[in-house]
Structure to design on (199 residues):
């Protein structure tokens, strides 16, 4: 008579294996989830808006900028604020991006002159129309231009809109300089940041 007894053990080893693999995968992944108290400190600080005392650094690195680095009449230079105590660059939000340029302060209106230091001006680099970088410079007219839809801004008059679809001027960032000429934030942005939602 043939022995039809089956081996002892699980009737279907596959579900057990599947459960073990899934449990192991969950445990493995859980080991790599960072703790919120440490994972969110730097990103939040990087998203915070520029504050008084922040140092301005080149957008392509973390080298502090001085008044002498901004050449009179030349195209705008892009920068980020850096929190000096922690050394965190506030580049976690595009709205913190700043454009710097230097012009003859005798051509500024009074409010613009109050926000400048030795002819150096700082404005939000983000166009309020659709959020493009205001990256073009019309040197002859001394006008800032957004390359996406050709909004034009007058930096000598608080970056007011001269022409184009932009709904408002660029926010100004008041500046100061330390004894070495290092550019620092004197006050938070003046004016609204971000894109105006189209209705």
């Amino acid at each position: 008579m043939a022995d039809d007894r089956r081996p002892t053990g699980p009737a279907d080893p596959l579900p057990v294996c599947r459960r073990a693999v899934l449990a192991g995968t969950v445990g493995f992944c859980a080991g790599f989830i960072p703790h919120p108290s440490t994972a969110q400190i730097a990103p939040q600080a990087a998203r915070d808006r520029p504050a008084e005392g922040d140092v301005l650094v080149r957008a392509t690195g973390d080298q502090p900028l001085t008044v002498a680095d901004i050449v009179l009449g030349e195209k705008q230079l892009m920068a980020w604020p850096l929190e000096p105590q922690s050394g965190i660059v506030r580049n976690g939000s595009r709205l913190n991006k700043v454009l710097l340029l230097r012009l003859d302060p005798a051509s500024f209106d009074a409010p613009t002159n109050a926000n400048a230091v030795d002819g150096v001006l700082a404005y939000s680099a983000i166009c309020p129309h659709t959020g493009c970088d205001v990256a073009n410079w019309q040197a002859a007219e001394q006008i800032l231009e957004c390359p996406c839809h050709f909004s034009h801004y007058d930096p000598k008059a608080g970056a007011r809109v001269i022409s184009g679809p932009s709904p408002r001027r660029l926010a100004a960032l008041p500046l100061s300089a330390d004894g070495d000429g290092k550019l620092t934030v004197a006050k938070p942005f003046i004016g609204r940041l971000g894109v105006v939602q189209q209705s």
